Amino acid sequence: MRAIQISSLDGPAAVELVEVAEPEAADGDIVIDVKAVGVSFVDALMTRGQYQVRPELPFVPGVEVAGIVRSAPAGAAVKAGDRCAAYVPRGGYAEVVAAKPAVTFPLPDELSFQQGAAFAMNFQTVHFALVRRGRLRAGEHVLVHGAAGGVGTAAIQVAKGLGAVVTAVVDSASTVAVAETAGADHVVVAEEGWADAVRAAAPHGIDVTVDPVGGEYFANSIRLLRPEGRHLVIGFAAGGIPEIAVNRLLLKNIEVVGVYWGGFVERDDSIAAASAAELSRLAREGFVRPVVGGVYPLADAAKALQAIEDRATSGKVVLDVAAIG
Q1: What is the pLDDT of residue 97?
Q2: Are 271 and 132 contacting, i.e. CB atoms less than 8 angstroms apart?
Q3: Do 136 and 308 form a contact (C-beta atoms < 8 A)?
Q4: Collapsing DSSP states into helix, strand and coil, what is residue 101?
């Protein structure tokens, strides 16, 4: 089969299209003919060895796929011929993957394969973040950073589906429409004075912040939280890992909460099926419609990863496995 391989840690340009053997499925695995693969900032970091998970070289990256089930064990949520979305620890940039039943889900009829490439991790992550880690309640006000990206647009849609008011922060005026299309109630451009614009949109303060960005936005986001607010740390796309004087947490009775869905689901994969069921309901009701940005043939994975690294994308970047590069 065709696959994209990382054989050296020299960045996106060094990834290679290779022919490798199809994965050997363990007993109980689901074998999937892949149609689309999600490309993430984590994948770009892995091309340089900068992510906390560092597989032995060479390896096939990619953790979220959508496709058609080739075979599945009895009792799985999907069967041969079904459309599905799945999370795999790695190996997603390929024509065939083997996935565990607990993290393989029916793909809702309302979603295309390209949209499904965001369903198994981005949407699972933000649902886990908002519901389990953030304890979001209907009517609360959610602030979303990086709101034009794959995680950000997913957070907007899930928060709206759960009954929240959403203020979105985007990098530039050119991406305001992306956050608006995802369903944000208010959109703020991240420039000097953005915190004042958020205060105007949320005069009583923010209840929950979804933050995949980190960096310089962190401190102002903490100030914007109302008492008993929750700041959800999902990633550090801005490059810097922020610090906080913890007396701020004490004085305002607020929380900074870590969110690492991939690490959690490795210990307790039972959370995935419940989230998938809820996300499928939100898809049927029209809230969940993954925003697909750039679509690249599998052979152009290097270009897709470079676009992610250059922050030249919006929505979810996808590899179309069937397309000819």
Answers
A1: 98
A2: yes
A3: no
A4: helix
